[in-house]
Amino acid sequence: MTAGDATATDAAVRNGTRPAPPTDEVLVACQDAALTFGRGQHAVVAVHGATLRVRAGDRLAIVGSSGSGKTSLLHLLAGLEQPTSGTVAWPALAGPRDTGLVFQSDSLIPALDVVENTALPLVLAGVPEADARDAATAALALVDAAHLAERLPEEISGGQAQRVAAARVLAQAPRLILADEPTGRLDHTTGGRVLDALLTAADRTRAALVVTTHDPAVAGRLATRLTMRDGRLLTAEGAEGTEGAEGAENTAAAAATQETATQETEETS
Ligand SMILES: Nc1ncnc2c1ncn2[C@@H]1O[C@H](COP(=O)(O)OP(=O)(O)OP(=O)(O)O)[C@@H](O)[C@H]1O
Fold it and tell me: Which parts of the sequence belong to the ABC transporter domain (predicted)?
């Protein structure tokens, strides 16, 4: 990212003035993407051929129990993992670097205060410190955390740390925000606030938002819900095609539904 990008980012985040992208733009497309860890008898298939498209403006929850493959799928969407087979592409983005991943684990650096933590990725990308700090301050305001700017990570709560982790991604103004269990370790009220912050920020910065969760209440806040079970991407209500799939007209759901139908055919033939 260049300094010019940072200024534009700052302005877009602060003012919500990023031009609205065409809503049919495909930001990331998985085609039959699989991810296997290990080899031979130790191989674990974390994701079985997933087909999914996320478009600008999508609000997508990927729901599943622990070990179902949600994080693995999110890492494929973020370009952090290469698919073992199939493809992942970012047709409307400059590549996976235009995505922002809010990690599951607390990843703030203890020696840096909140605004420094939030600005760090921009600084590391070569953005002048003052511009990075301005963008960070604007992003913290988006998640209702501006008042925490001067505190160290040890001086804030778990829920506040999650909001800061979200702000750190939002400061980069990604067009695709990927959040891995952002409410996982939080109580209901605090988790709700973190989700509020992500939804508000995604609206303000006109980003698509994909959230993994095991919590149906969290998933219910997103327009489209898909389920992962044993590494397979299903529709919202199970593996039986379009029936009951929330927002089946949504590309993400429709693509996964199509995939589910394909899988069903393959498995029964
Ligand atoms: N780096 C890895 N090496 C080997 N196996 C892995 C690795 N990462 C994940 N797995 C395995 O892949 C499967 C899917 O894991 P993944 O973390 O994607 O699931 P998840 O639904 O995100 O679970 P959780 O909610 O507990 O994070 C699990 O069986 C897990 O043990």
Answer: 28-256
